[in-house]
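User: Run a structure prediction on this.
Assistant: Running it now.
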Amino acid sequence: QIRTMNSPYKMGVNEYVNNIPLKLAFGENCGFNFAYTVMPPAFLSGLCAEKKLDISSVSFWAYKTFCDSYELLPNFCISCSGAVKSVKIASQFQLKDISKAPIYVTNESGSSSRAFALYCKKLLGFDLPEHTTKDLHSAKTLFLIGDAALRLNDADFPYCYDFGGLFYDAFKMPMVYGAIAVKKELYAKLKEPLCALFNRSLEIFESDKTRCIQDAVKTVNSPNADFLYMKEYFDKFRYKISDAEFEKIKNFVFEK
């Protein structure tokens, strides 16, 4: 396709509240014409696999399925070392026994679901795809991410586990949930201005954190997620990591 002067860049935006710090500088006055598609990151990754987006938030663990067509912006990501609050295993069984009955894995996940499958195989000794169901009501274990996991009342289940903590304990490295992908033919042109916009977004978040957290509380809209809970939630994330750490984690994912 030939891009005209006024043709917008097609940009995918992660709809979850954990992405708030990375989107605050993107608006009418950001200096670019963007046409936004707002979805869970796994769905955006699917669109990237079809080459339908120019720039997008993507599931970090899904990137290798479309890496021939996209580059990742360096450093910027959604990462956490340990318990994360928004990736949960809620079950009628203890963790070691979850393979005894059907497991529902949300289709909104592209990173956590892959990491969960790795965890099940390496730590629990079973192949996750052989034990999943798409029927939420028949499942005895739920694997949920994002805002739905934040709304989940842990007390409704006999056993509830934070998968971020399980992953870190098992593999001794941060879990990177999301990153930013750019079409290869646009990468050289857009890398610098996009990095400037994402840096500006993080600056806005730090300077106006209270309002941003209040907005997140309203979006989640759950008695389980009050202001203090959501402040602790955002404090867990790192949205920018070093080149060396970024490459180390990417190599780990690509090897799996």
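Residues 1-5 have pLDDT under 50 and may be disordered.
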